[in-house]
Amino acid sequence: VKPALAFAGIASLAVLAGSALWFGARPDASPSAVDISPGALYAAAFVDRDGKHQSLGQFQGRVLVLNFWATWCAPCREEMPGFARLQARWGPSGVQFVGLALDDAGKVARFGDELRINYPLWTGEGSVSDLSRRLGNRLGLLPQTAIVDASGTVVVTRIGAFEEEKLDQLLTGILGKSP
Amino acid sequence: VIARSVAGLAVLALAGIVRAAGADEPLDPDDAFRLGVRLATGLPSQGGRPGLALDYRIAEGYYLYRDRFQVSIDPGSLALGAPHLPKGLTKDDPFVGKAEIFRNEVTLEIPFSGKPVPGTYTLKVVAQGCMEGRICYAPFAQEVRVNIPPGFQVTDAPGIRALPVPPATKP
């Protein structure tokens, strides 16, 4: 990574933080509230739409964007089409979105089809809410999004919807490059 | 690698800064949706039958979904009928569709099923709701305790807040 690119990434983050301050946006749970090791994060078990067990470990080495949501949560549904666009944009650069739903598996599958979500949407009895809590979500708020770097370290957590452009800028900063 | 580490540190630092800037932090569910219970000699929705009245005071800008309540009681020796919920407001959300919700306040009326056994009981209510346009709460559980004194139903024991019994309506 060239220093210039790194500088650009940091600069864009500074602009992002500044604009977030200005508009009162608020990633709510700081990474300091995170209570999970990379090993535990990658081992957390979920279930896909076919009922097969899945874990985040299969994406080790990629930058993960974990989004906690539910089909009845309006701000969750509002941001997801933007996540699908970012998955298409950033996927080839090593970014993987995963939706973790606090919801019924059938509803999740129907919603995924309806909105043509292009990233995995998993559920899990207890495992979704447990991971959410360990990522600092003390009050069980939705949506919640966490960005995990390629080594399994949680670098950003946010409660509340992400604007597509801001998430795009954050990913540029974390990866030190544009897609 | 170094540059990425620096960028990562910057992300960490900025996330903390932005977090500190939040002024309109979502309320704890217990504050957004304040729950109380009353022992009622006559529930208006139940033809004056006795039961429990669960009162929610909902903070401004928040709402509860009507069809998402789950009520259980411990110990289970106090038999309860099906909760009655008043009609809610229709919320037509462009992303979720139509749903019935409650704002401001709502009372769930739960009749006793059979003769209530005196004792102290814990009611557990699971509900779902949202802060308008911002965030939603994953299903959250709240607990309230209620005491049924010996002799309840015959006369109101001192200290018990009872719902007023509606006047008998003429045929």
Global Rg of chain A: 15 Å
Amino-to-carboxy terminus distance of chain B = 84 Å
Question: What is the strand tally of chain B?
Answer: 9
Looking at how many chains there are and whether they match, the oligomeric state comes to heterodimer
Q: Report on the biggest sheet of chain B.
A: 6 strands, antiparallel
Order of helices and strands of chain A: HHEEEHEHEHEEEH
Low-confidence stretches of chain B: 16-23, 154-171
Order of helices and strands of chain B: HHEEEEEEEEE
Main interface: chain pair and counts: A-B, 54 and 39 residues
Secondary structure tally: strands of chain A? 8
Strand content of chain A: 15-25%
Relative strand content of chain B = 35-45%
Major sheet of chain A: 5 strands, mixed
Give the mean pLDDT of chain B. 82
Mean pLDDT of chain A: 87
CA radius of gyration of chain B is: 22 Å
3D shape of chain A:
globular
Question: Topology, pairings included?
Answer:
The complex is a heterodimer of chains A (179) and B (171).
Chain A: H1 3-23, H2 38-43, E1 45-47, E2 53-55, E3 63-69, H3 74-90, E4 95-101, H4 105-114, E5 121-122, H5 127-134, E6 141-142, E7 144-148, E8 154-159, H6 164-175
Parallel strand pairs in A: 3-4, 4-5
Antiparallel strand pairs in A: 1-2, 3-7, 7-8
Chain B: H1 2-20, H2 29-32, E1 33-40, E2 51-58, E3 62-65, E4 70-74, E5 89-93, E6 97-102, E7 105-111, E8 119-131, E9 135-148
Antiparallel strand pairs in B: 1-2, 2-7, 3-6, 3-8, 4-8, 5-6, 8-9
Structural account:
The complex is a heterodimer of chains A (179) and B (171). Chain A is an alpha/beta fold and 179 residues long. In chain A, 41% of the residues lie in helices and 20% in strands. Chain A contains six helices and eight strands. Chain A has helices spanning 3-23, 38-43, 74-90, 105-114, 127-134, 164-175; strands spanning 45-47, 53-55, 63-69, 95-101, 121-122, 141-142, 144-148, 154-159. The two termini of chain A are 14 Å apart. The model of chain A is unreliable at 14-29 (pLDDT under 50). In chain B, 13% of the residues lie in helices and 41% in strands. Chain B has two helices and nine strands. In chain B, the strands form two sheets. In chain B, strands 3, 4, 5, 6, 8 and 9 form a six-stranded antiparallel β-sheet that branches. In chain B, strands 1-2-7 form a three-stranded antiparallel β-sheet. Chains A and B meet through helix 1, helix 3, strand 6, strand 8 and helix 6 of A and helix 1 and strand 9 of B.
